[in-house]
Amino acid sequence: MRSVWFFRLTRWGVFGLGAALAAWGVAAMFEGWDKIQIERGWSLFIAGAVALSGGVVTVAIAAALSRLDHALATFSPQAPRVDAPAPAPVISQPAPAPEMEPPPAMAPPTAMAPPPGFEAYAPKRYVEAEPVEVDRYENGGALYVMFSDGSVEIRGEGRVRRFASLSELRAQVNA
């Protein structure tokens, strides 16, 4: 485990670099604020904001490395102790398996009845008594009425024709 000290040093190094970068970003923003009227002030302020955010992200990476270090220490396998000799393994012959009877013939599965009170939880189907008018428009002296079930009704010249769907109406018109 020679790399443990290097990992801890790296973790603190990343944290130090992140803190330094964030501090430099704050200093650059503070310095650029006074000179914001000229171009150099904007450049300093923007660079400082970028450095500050980069420093915060780097500190967050250092925190993640710290968590990883603790996780590795927690879940790393421990070396076995050599205090007492290990017991000799006991070798025994397995007992022969008892003779098993074949399973009884099963009846084919049948439909199960729903449990009592199931009707209260069963989905209710919404069925309209009559379709509701959704839209209507007039074209060429005929009134077209569209209903919620998808059917279309044409009223004109003293007669009414009803089609089950708009595609059926188109097929009739195109024929």
What does this protein look like?
With 175 residues, this protein is of the alpha+beta class. Helix content is 45%, strand content 13%. Strands 1-2-3-4 form a 4-stranded antiparallel beta sheet. Strand 2 (142-147) and strand 3 (152-156) form a beta hairpin. The longest helix is centred in the N-terminal third of the chain and has 37 residues, at 39-75. It is flat, with a radius of gyration of 41 Å. The protein starts with a helix and ends with a helix. The mean pLDDT is 78.
Classify the helix fraction into a percent range: 40-55%
Shape: flat
Rg measurement, Å: 41 Å
Question: H/E element string?
Answer: HHEEEEH
What is the end-to-end distance?
86 Å
Uncertain regions: pLDDT < 50 for 5+ in a row?
Answer: none
**Relative strand content:** 5-15%
Largest sheet: 4 strands, antiparallel
